[in-house]
Amino acid sequence: MSHLSQAHPQAPSQDPSQAPSQAPSQDPTRAPSQGSSSSLSYPSQLPIVDLAAADRGPQARRLLHAQLHSAAHDVGFFQLVGHGVSEVETRALTSAMRAFFALPEADRLALDTTNSPHFRGYTRVGDERTAGARDWRDQLDIGAERPAHVPGPGEPPYWWLQGPNQWPEALPELRLAALNWIERLSGVAERLLHELLTSIGARPDFYDDVFGRAAHPHLKLVRYPGSSGDAGDDQGVGAHKDYGFLTLLLQDQVGGLQVEREDGRFHDVPPLPGAFVVNLGELLEVATNGYLVATNHRVVSPPGATERYSVPFFYNPRLDARVRPLEFPYAAAAPGITADPANPLFAEYGRNELKGKLRAHPLAAARHHADLLTATGQPAMSA
What we know:
The chain is 24% helix and 17% strand. The chain is of the alpha+beta class.
């Protein structure tokens, strides 16, 4: 994607002496992770944004906005610190997540996604697809806990995406930790979105009406079991963009996340303890006509028997939300969106998510939604 070089607020270069205290030391001689095209010496690693600066007075808030503006316009990715989520809250979720993946396989398979017309539940290694290729990971998909909405006559089929989660009976603490995480990160993401919109001169509450209590957040608990060396095992998850507003990722210290940068190559994202990796989704790119960017990213499987755990949280609007173009002073300088004929974007958010679910979960799609698929098993364009 091309980016304009017109003037806009720029964040000053990161002074290592001013980096957050939890930032790890970076050894530029360390070998890159498997499949990487760069080492940590790449001169433009992800920006570090401190959300707590919004409460430190006008000067600190101006710096925050300059950093957010630059990160969202130029990169589409950044590391977020100062978000207020405590280590205790994080440990409650990650401990429950590890306990889930330690359950006997039969207990996990009892929650198989193929049981759910709402695409909630457990997906075995290799059963999810990105760009048609299998992802070498297993995961538990969780959303807001709501009654099933079976589409009635004339209602869009995306209402199938609303429904109950599947929970392991042997691990009641997982339900509490996961639903608390969804609520907690929804608040962080709302605040971040307000500051991001302010940073480009827009009204901070411009999109409040498409979220609220009917928003459609999505949480994944993910384990990458490591590559066995067989063909295809190195794709933890294939290159893609997210189709919502914001993604907040909690990753462990194993690494493997890579982001496509200005040189067209994928570069490692070094884990930063206590930080969320934030990326913008396609809805923000479309809403700003490309001024804010959604960026390709992927995960390379860890080598051998090394496991990697991650927790992506997707801040999504209501399923029936129609995201109107953002009103902001840089709109005339927007370069336009990146069009992908194989991945059309629809006006209603729910149609985009349903299209993605039908592609990513072919077994569940074939079992519950065959009427929404073409003869080749792909989502029908009207889905």
